[in-house]
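INFO batch 0412 | record 1 of 1 | parsing
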Amino acid sequence: MKQVNVHEAKSQLSKLLEEVEGGERVIIARAGEPVAVLSPYRTAVRKRKLGLFAGEATISPDFDELPADIAAAFGQPQP
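INFO prediction complete | emitting tokens
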């Protein structure tokens, strides 16, 4: 793990970010004392459990049919 001071981190930020993208972690220190760590950003991935709500909801057979007044409001021909 590489350690740099705040001044160097400010002046070399682009270079440090390239190193972090490569997988390296960088410690930023102030007066020799570690203050922060630059590390690659990774999104947390949770596994989804399929079928969790199976059988909990139903869809009406006429789900795709619009009532006549709403169809008319959208300019659709009435059945």
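INFO post-check: Residues 44 and 54 are 26 Å apart (CA to CA).
INFO record closed
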